[in-house]
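ZP: hey, is the zinc ion complex queued? I don't see it on the tracker
AM: it wasn't, my bad. submitting now with these inputs:
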Amino acid sequence: MQLKLLWELQKIDLTIAALQKTIEEAPLKSGVEEASQNLESLKNDQSQQTESLKVDRKALKELEMKIQKIVDDRKDLNDGLYSGKTTSAKELEQMQRKMDILAEEKKKYEDRLLVLMESVEEQEGALNALNDQINEIERLLKDKEEKLEQELSLYRSELSKMDNIRAGKTEGIEQKYLDRYTMLSEKYKGQALALVENDICGGCRVFISSAQRGHLYNPGALVYCENCGRLLIKSDETD
Ligand SMILES: [Zn+2]
């Protein structure tokens, strides 16, 4: 009777262990972890790209201001040239030269401005696409997390049911049997007891000796497999 209870306890414990494993592996299998990591890496990209765009926008503004300054300076020079106030040929020539230098500078800045504008535009496009991608993954992740939570709550309620059943089962088992079972269970990864069918140990698939077979019919005797060490139980005892 005690052996039968131990056998039933083992079945309960194996179910509990399987449930615990399922709960442990559920987040990985649901893809939540993968999606979280993916999201994190995309958000890193996002902040880097945002920062780089900020820098380039600032540079763009500075270039625009430089160009505007040149335009203003040239206008002043131009006004000076044609105001008639300056009549010295040398001075006029210098002013004209300065106008030319400023025009060259302006051209240089404008070329840089064009390149930078293109780059900023490209970055804005890429960042927009990235933002869309992040939104989409966040939506998917939320979905997955909700499903995972539903799944986990089912498993957890199943587990708590099994824990109650286990508690009820152990009430009928003597402490010394429970201790022995616990010790063997740890040693054999939950398979403390092995079923004997056709004189074969269900734990290691080795024939049991005739002496052991005799002991098995002795009620209350604890018989261990000589090969693997598991506690043996006859199949008709498990019914
Ligand atoms: Zn065995």
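AM: back. The first strand starts at residue 193 and ends at 197.
ZP: great, adding it to the tracker
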